[in-house]
Structures are given as structure tokens and as C-alpha cells.
Design brief:
Number of strands of chain A: 12
Helix content of chain A: 25-40%
InterPro entries (chain A): Thiolase-like, Thiolase_C_2
Distance between the termini of chain B: 7 Å
Structural class of chain B: mainly beta
Pfam family, one (chain A): Thiolase_C_1
Oligomer: heterodimer
Number of helices of chain B: 2
CATH topology of chain A: Peroxisomal Thiolase, Chain A, domain 1
Number of domains of chain B: 1
Order of helices and strands of chain A: EHEHEHEEHHHEEEHEHEHHHHEE
Radius of gyration of chain B: 16 Å
Protein name (chain B): DNA-binding protein
Shape of chain B: globular
CATH architecture of chain A: 3-Layer(aba) Sandwich
Number of domains of chain A: 1
Number of strands of chain B: 9
Protein name (chain A): Thiolase C-terminal domain-containing protein
Shape of chain A: globular
GO molecular function, one term (chain A): acyltransferase activity, transferring groups other than amino-acyl groups
Strand content of chain A: 15-25%
CATH superfamily of chain A: Thiolase/Chalcone synthase
Strand order of the largest sheet of chain A: 3-2-4-8-1-9-12-11-10
Radius of gyration of chain A: 20 Å
Largest sheet of chain B: 5 strands, antiparallel
């Protein structure tokens, strides 16, 4: 059954801050810049914003989480001088930024607000990760004492198992990673806009946790990206072409473990999310013109490709060869560079890139097929979500 | 008993903090016994411990298991991001093992560096590492002459 809110809401503004690695400028300033850019892009003034939604979780555990410094939560914008008209907000603790988009659609469609700002700000803390106190409460007690902490070992353990089962070679990943870097080289908002990457660079990269090498891991950045959403009827009066939210769903698949990925079930875990999106929009995967697939670690792109049915189980490493996922390929993937090369924005870069592509504003990296843009955030085995965006109202 | 090979004398492993649900696991480990939750109603094992059986909603109880397992996956992690661990120490082999009692019943371990590991290898528990005042069950390739409970 199609979604009651299908294309009821549109993205009418998108804004990017500067993108840096480490900086002493407070993160809140990056978020202010992105918000101002998005609101101006929408042809609005800040006092038009009466709804706020974000997923603010900092990308590290155990360190400080000060509003406006280490993270940008709802409170940061409620303190803004222009925000006195805000009458609705939502701050997601699970599900990443696609949850915030879905929340905003619901609020706008229900009349809880008229104009919603949705943002994500990401921060690289000083020093190395994990420098806080050495105790392991809760589930971490069963993993951290063995050096299994954070996302890297999860992904490495899962990826070894994936390669074993699919018969794939880790060297073949170079095709995807280098293609994404080419895209970033054509994206002015990418942290690696000016830095090339070759297959030789990939082959020579140091191992982080085998089979994951350095270039299989996303690049931490300090940056913010914001979107402005409003109802479809209001969108028609605004200057930029509306990009409609045709579907928005959360990853709710039951899982057994939280210590690490369950490793063998990425298709089973991700397929229901993609099916829900297609049913909401009344579209099929064949209608997808481009895909922005979360790549905190490169193998997640493989898992999403298989979960969405773009190729069969265990076939994704073959699928990404020969330019098939290039901007001018059969299925353009991560056309802005993704988290690997645009920068780690926990899915917000993927969302913004889908909007830019559907507007036809992507310049040298513009895809030809401006059919539905699929955005899948998180990993099939984690709590994320997805949206389907369209240039035309369905 | 020492802090084990991972600690390498240069740092201390993060210390498990037992809570109301997990305390029996750590108490048993101090006695050199591996126990895992098993549901009193449907008989399903689960780990890590939970307040209820995730299969049927019943009451889980800690049950001794054999300590035999197979290797599910592993990775050699360079400078793993672990609370309190300085950079520049030797890499660590992090593994997931599946207890023979039930498919999907997985535990995390670090493994002494070996020439050859293969998915499916037989593994065996030993209680040869500590973190603070807690004893850690660790898994070794089954053919090795691992230390037994100390």
C-alpha cells in the first residue's frame, strides 16, 4: 500500500558548511552556516522555520557531548535568536538522520509545523579515539576487554565472513573506492575534492583491521549539512525545484546481537527496509536512477546493493566492477563521493547528494537518469533507515 | 595469572562492570567456569545476557557450557580503538567464536597471534587473562596446549 504521506512533503533547501578535518571553530558555527545556507537556498528567512529535527549523536563514545561544541542538538537551534517561532522539534536517539526526515514529514503533514530544518553536524575530537576511562559496562563488558570496541572490528569481522562466503577478493574493492574518489573530485563539498586516489594507492594502503584497509574506512570530518522541508503546496511557491519525499522508513529488523554484526544476514536484514520504501512509493527497485548507499565502511555498500536486490547475494563485488556504479554507469552509486571521500556525515551527505542530483545541480557528476533516488543509511545490520526521493510528485 | 598477551605489560584491559543481569557470568569466570544464559521455558541459549529470553520472553538462567567452540571470524586489528589503550602496541587478533551448544551463540575473544586461522577451526576456552579483579574467558585453537583454569 502506498504511503499516506507520499510526496506530501518536499525538500526545498539544501545547505553545506565548510568541510574540515580538525578545527578549533565550535561545531555549532558550522551548523549555523549550513542552516543559513539551506534557508537562503529555499528562498526563506530564518523566522520561517518552525520545526527542528536532527540525529545529534557524536561519532565517538565516552567523551564529552556539549551542545554546540561536540554535537549540535535541538537545543543549539532553540537558543538561536531567530528560532522563537519554533513549535515542533524531534531529536532521534536511534535510526540516524533518515529518522529525522521521517519525523519531519509526519510533523509537516500533520500540521505540527510548516517549515522544518533537518540537519546533521559531525565533529572530529582532538587526540585519538577511546582515550577515556578503562571500564566496560553493559554489553561492552563482553567485547571491549578483548579489544573489540567501536565499529571497526565489527565491520572487519563481518567483512572477512562475507569474503569467505562470497569467494570475493578484498583487492576487488578498489574499483568502488576509487570510483567514489573520482566523484568526490567533482564535488566541491567533499573533503577530498582535490585529492586523487588510484588503484595503486588502494593496493598499497595499510591495514586497519584486515580485511579492512585505510581506504575502506570513511574519513572523519568537521562539517554540517542542513535541509529545509515543507509541504508540497508551499513548495510550489518557492524558487528551487522541489524534491519530494516519496517514501521514508526505518530499519526495524529484529537482531540477536549488539556486540557485533550478525554477519550472515545482511540481505535478510536490509530487504524489508527496501521493500517498505518501494511499497510506500509504489515504485520498484528498477525505477531507481541512482543510489546513495551508506559507506561508513566500504563493505556496507556491498551489503546494501545485495539487500536492495540490485544484484544477487554474494555478487556485489563483481557488480561494482567495470564502471557499473560510476556516474555514467548502469546504477550510479555514491555520486558525491560518499562517506569514504566526501566525508563522514552519517548519511546526511548521501541525502543532500540525492537532492542535488534530482535538482539537476550536480555539474560534472550529474547523472543522466533523474528517476527515483534511493538513500539507504546505516548498515543493513544496524539501526538506520532509508528514503526514496523523486523530482516529480507521484 | 596475568593480564594476558593483549595487555602486553603496557596497558590494562578495560574492566568489565558486572550488573544485576550479568554478575553470574563474571562470578563463574572467577571460578574457571563458562556459563551462558539458557531459557527455563524454551531452552534457547543467549549471549550477551539479557533481562528476558529474546526467543520466547521467558526467564533465562545461567547454565554451564562445554567451552568448546568454532571460529566464526577474526581480524588482526592495528591500534584498535579501546578505552585507555595507547597507540603503537602490537596488533591484536580479535575473534568471534560460536559455542557448540547452539548455532549463533557467539562470544568475543582475543586470540594469541598464530600463523594460520581458518573459519570453522575448533576453539577451546581458557581462563588465562584478567582485567582488574575480573577473570576473562578467552578462546584458543583447540590443538594448542592452552593453560587451563588457574
Amino acid at each position: 500500500m502506498t504511503w499516506a504521506n507520499r510526496c506530501a512533503v518536499a525538500v526545498v533547501g539544501v545547505g553545506f558548511s565548510a568541510v574540515e578535518r580538525r578545527t578549533t571553530t565550535p561545531l555549532g558555527r558550522f551548523a549555523d552556516d549550513a542552516a543559513a545556507a539551506a534557508i537562503a537556498d529555499a528562498g526563506l528567512t530564518p523566522d520561517a522555520v518552525d520545526g527542528l529535527a536532527t540525529y545529534p549523536t557524536p561519532p565517538f563514545e565516552g567523551a564529552a557531548a556539549r551542545s554546540g561544541e561536540d554535537m549540535v542538538d535541538v537545543e543549539h537551534f532553540l537558543q538561536a535568536p531567530w528560532a522563537r517561532g519554533v513549535r515542533w522539534y524531534s531529536q532521534a536517539g536511534e535510526g540516524m538522520v533518515t529518522t529525522s526526515v521521517r519525523d519531519a514529514v509526519h510533523a509537516l503533514a500533520a500540521g505540527a509545523c510548516t517549515t522544518a530544518l533537518v540537519w546533521r553536524a559531525m565533529y572530529v575530537p582532538p587526540g585519538t579515539y577511546g582515550t577515556h576511562a578503562g571500564t566496560a559496562p553493559g554489553d561492552a563488558a563482553f567485547a571491549a576487554p578483548y579489544c573489540c570496541a567501536g565499529a571497526i572490528p565489527w565491520h572487519a569481522l563481518a567483512y572477512r565472513r562475507y569474503l569467505e562466503r562470497s569467494g570475493g577478493r578484498r583487492e576487488a574493492m578498489a574499483a568502488l573506492v576509487v570510483e567514489q574518489r573520482r566523484n568526490a573530485n567533482r564535488n566541491p563539498h567533499a573533503v577530498f575534492a582535490d585529492r586523487a586516489l588510484t588503484e595503486q594507492d588502494y593496493a598499497a594502503a595499510r591495514m586497519v583491521a584486515d580485511p579492512l584497509c585505510l581506504f575502506d574506512c570513511d574519513v572523519p570530518v568537521t562539517a554540517a549539512i542542513a535541509l529545509v522541508l515543507t509541504t508540497a503546496d508551499r513548495a510550489r511557491d518557492l524558487p528551487r525545484p522541489p524534491v519530494y519525499v516519496a517514501a521514508a522508513a526505518q530499519q526495524t529488523t529484529r537482531r540477536e546481537h549488539r556486540l557485533h554484526y550478525t554477519m550472515d544476514d545482511h540481505v535478510d536484514a536490509g530487504e524489508p527496509l527496501v521493500r517498505a520504501l518501494c511499497e510506500q512509493a509504489g515504485l520498484g527497485v528498477r525505477d531507481v536512477g541512482s543510489a546513495q548507499l551508506y559507506d561508513g565502511f566500504a563493505p556496507s555498500v556491498l551489503y546494501w546493493l545485495e539487500a536492495a536486490g540490485f544484484c544477487g547475494r554474494g555478487e556485489a563485488l563483481d557488480f561494482v566492477q567495470d564502471g557499473r556504479v560510476a556516474v555514467d554507469g548502469e546504477l550510479p552509486v555514491n555520486t558525491g563521493g560518499g562517506s569514504l571521500s566526501q566525508g563522514r556525515m552519517h548519511g546526511m551527505g548521501h541525502l543532500a547528494e540525492a537532492v542535488v542530483q534530482l535538482r539537476g545541480d550536480a555539474g560534472e557528476r550529474q547523472v543522466a537518469d533523474r528517476g527515483a533516488a534511493l538513500v539507504l543509511v546505516g548498515s543493513p545490520m544496524l539501526r538506520g533507515g532509508g528514503v526514496l526521493l523523486t523530482a516529480d510528485s507521484l | 595469572m596475568s593480564d594476558g598477551p593483549v595487555a602486553d605489560g603496557a596497558w590494562a584491559r578495560p574492566v568489565p562492570v558486572p550488573d544485576d543481569v550479568t554478575a553470574p557470568f563474571w562470578a563463574a569466570a572467577r571460578e574457571g567456569r563458562l556459563v551462558v544464559q539458557r531459557c527455563g521455558d524454551c531452552g534457547t541459549f543467549q549471549h550477551p545476557p539479557r533481562a528476558r529470553c529474546t526467543s520466547c520472553g521467558g526467564d533465562p538462567m545461567f547454565t554451564a557450557v562445554s567451552g568448546d567452540a568454532t571460529l566464526v571470524s577474526w581480524t588482526t586489528a592495528h591500534d584498535p580503538v579501546v578505552p585507555g589503550r595507547p597507540r603503537g602496541l602490537p596488533p591484536v587478533v580479535i575473534a568471534v567464536v560460536e559455542l557448540v551448544e547452539q548455532p549463533g551463540l557467539w562470544l568475543v575473544s582475543d586470540v594469541d597471534e598464530r600463523a594460520e586461522l581458518r573459519i570453522g577451526d575448533d576453539m577451546r576456552v581458557a581462563f588465562d587473562a584478567t582485567a582488574g579483579d575480573q577473570v576473562l574467558p578467552r578462546f584458543h585453537p583447540a590443538g594448542d596446549s592452552a593453560e587451563g583454569p588457574s
